[in-house]
Amino acid sequence: MTSSWSLYHITVFVLTFVSYAFFHATRKTFSNVKATISQEWTPAPDLLYNDTFHNGTIHQRTLPDKIWNSHNFYDNKNDAEYFLGDLDTAFLIAYAVGLFISGIVGDRLNMRLVLSFGMCSSAVAVFLFGTLSEWLHLYSKEYYLAMWIVNGLLQSTGWPTVVAIMANWFGKSSRGVVLGLWSACASVGNIIGAFIVAGVLQYGYEYAFLVPSIVLFAGGIVVFFGLVASPKEVGLPEPDENVIVTNNIINQSGQPTERDPLLQGSRRNESITEVDEVSNEPETSPEPKAIGFFQAFLLPGVILYSSSYACLKMVNYAFFFWLPYYLTNQFGWSQARSDELSIWYDVGGIVGGTIGGFVSDRMTKRSPTVMFMLLLSIPLLYFYSISPNDKTINAFLMSLVGFGLGGAANIISSAITADLGKQDSLRGNTKALATVTGIVDGTGSVGAAIGQFLVPIIQLRLNWHWVFYFFILMTILTMACILPLFIADIRSMSCWRRRYGTPRLQVNIDGSTYDYVSDHRSDQYGSPSVQ
């Protein structure tokens, strides 16, 4: 699988991985300092402190005096929590709108420039939101809201471009495991952000915004000078364009063709090696035009996967935004300790995305793997909701939930999205990748925005157990959206085994594995044929 990779492949993998990890590190900062911000924005008359100036006796006083007495920002903790939830919702709405736009822009402009601009400008927005406002004592709801909306728009430039660039460099034969591993960039970014917050929060929450913004800005400079968006820019062939496999076993109607060698009993067990090799020399052909937004939206599988990702991202991002806050308020653990423990959800997502991508490559279908991971997540969500006040047990259950939910989300947002953007109906037009990615992730972010509005309402009016019941419901709805694709893929796999009794034949050319069979039956049901 890796014998045909060049230094460019490794460089692209590393730079896109790190760039999106830095994006997520800046997002994670806000979720990890919510408890601290809530304390500083509200009075705390019931908070007890050890006053060493009075013989070690415990005194009761309201903190923080400076912010509360000068600005009266919020009267109580609940009001502050509502506003923090509103900031999450505003960010995700802006992010969702930006994704639809950024996908279209990414297919029409140089994706390296789009990505670099998004990283540097987002770093500036994060600095203005969390650091400069504190240094200047600018406590304004309108200012915070405006800056976080701008940050959401700028951060949306990241995912469509990095997924499209990765899909340009890595083909279908290895896309599941490669993008499954690569999609850990978001989780790694969360981990980086959590460690940064834990390390600098003692100096003030403004430094938890300052350090990630500096790192993100520096990363944008590196991307500008070092990233190659497409193999064509350096004279290399596209990953799936150097071979055309002939003698397809099943035609568009799903019936065996007359050229099918497996229909001849005497040749049933013969190895099939007939392939047409295409020269690696680039052909002089006009640059393909980017497809329109509605054309991309109506591609097979896009609507169903977008709908499923809206439900799944609602749950995944609820963990992302609220998990440290939940641990602090539910169990009374310190903010720094809760930030460290929340990392285990991302660790589970990394493992789940990598293993799930590998399995889906071997099956040549994605939906069965995703369905299994989602089904596994339902009981795990319930068990995690009743986790005892034990850090080890909580971290273990959290990692299992991350394996199912985070892993499934990683597969949909990376490997499946790339498959949708390079499916057969596009006839090799790569100018749809960023647009399709923006549609899927943008629709998911709309669902996530709704979730961030609902989570604090459910928690304050009911309790955290009802929040987890809500997560279970959304997971079930995710499975319902994928169900037609799952049924189509299972039928396709069963039909093949009943008809021929053997797995699909494959050929290995130039170190890459290609399906000998192009099963167009699955495309009729809206599921991409993964080769």
TrEMBL record:
PROSITE patterns: MFS. The keyword Membrane applies. SUPFAM superfamilies: MFS general substrate transporter (SSF103473). Pfam families: MFS_1. Gene3D superfamilies: MFS general substrate transporter like domains. PANTHER family: MAJOR FACILITATOR SUPERFAMILY TRANSPORTER 16, ISOFORM B, SUGAR PHOSPHATE EXCHANGER 3. This is Sugar phosphate exchanger 3. It comes from Owenia fusiformis (Polychaete worm).
